[in-house]
Amino acid sequence: MPLALLALAVGAFGIGTTEFVMMGLLPDVADDLGLSIPSAGHLVSAYALGVVIGAPLLAAVTARRSRRTVLIGLMVLFVVGNALSALAPGEHLLLAARFLSGLPHGAFFGVGAVVATGMVAPERRARSVSLMFLGLTVANIIGVPAATAMGQQMGWRATFLAVSAIGVAAIAALAFLIPRDHAPAATTGLRGELAALKSVPVWLALGTTVAGFGALFSAYSYITPMLTDAAGYGEASVTLLLALFGVGATAGNLLGGRLADHSLRATLFGGLASLVLVLALFPLLMRTPVTAALAVALLGMAAFVTGSPLQLMVMEKASAAPSLASSANQAAFNLANAGGAWIGGLTLAAGLGTTSPALAGSALAVLGLAVAGAAYLVDRRGAVPVAAGGRERVVAGHVPEQAEAEAVRG
């Protein structure tokens, strides 16, 4: 695999760290700024809102720019947002800084996925995307726990300064490792990019992301009370168990990338079916500490097996605008975060039990399977071409610079 993928992984590591570290620092931020925990929780929502708005918007308006230049620019915006978060004197400016920090998130992963697939042979594209996402999953194992500990010991502002430093390192890696491409990322312009998103298959692919990852966040948002109230763990053990989730997510991400290169659709269906089963078994697995720990790892693995297939499927369905579609998929991921947490919360408010969010998640995963099945039927009716050897072809790889690279290899 090209060394340039390391630059994308470093950026993903910084983004993953800043996205999830706020959950662990909420009490510290609330105490320092004189806020209630619910009010401080708006900082999480502000970041997610930035992702949802920024992902398609920034990808669309930078469509004619060099992808290397776009990635560096997005990371500069990331550094500025996190630095402003560290310096924010009060709640309102911190909310604005967190919103700003979220803006480049989706576009970075979206454009980065197109760059990653453009640097490898067709049969290794899913693995290239999974290696970029590796930075995101490793952030849950190393970055978030370390940044949380730093914030608790040195103050939450130090955490965001450290995250800014990671962003600076990512900028340097992108500048030195990503090949210069003088051609624009797209030649169709903004109108052409937006027109590529009008197809039913694109929206079915995005809908699969919302339902599938909504299933994950329905349960994961309430994993702490499940572990403490149902499985009997102490609160001090939760951080270690969440790192175990990161281990499972990392393994699932790498496995999904490898399997998707052989059969993208089968990997997606298998991952969603596994998610249905794992979440359905949560009420049983949460009865003992050992099986609860196993459940946390399996949840991460089952959910992230689908990450690379979903990203590539969206790019395939919008081959004329892969950067915009890929970025829109990241917006869908964050909608899944908010929607899944809301649905899981409804089951708790209804008094259905501590593990009821997992059952709601299982139902959402079934919905994801149904949407993925509908997408498959639409493809069959449209006679989607299949590459030699029976493998599904990722049309998104045939953007201008990719086709040129393949011609050189041929």
From TrEMBL:
Residues 4-380 form the Major facilitator superfamily (MFS) profile domain. It comes from the Bacteria. Keywords: Cell membrane, Membrane, Transmembrane, Transmembrane helix. It is found in: Cell membrane. InterPro entries: MFS, MFS_dom, MFS_Efflux_Transporters, MFS_trans_sf, Tet-R_TetA/multi-R_MdtG-like. SUPFAM superfamilies: MFS general substrate transporter (SSF103473). Its main location: membrane. This is MFS transporter. The lineage of its organism: Bacteria, Bacillati, Actinomycetota, Actinomycetes, Kitasatosporales.
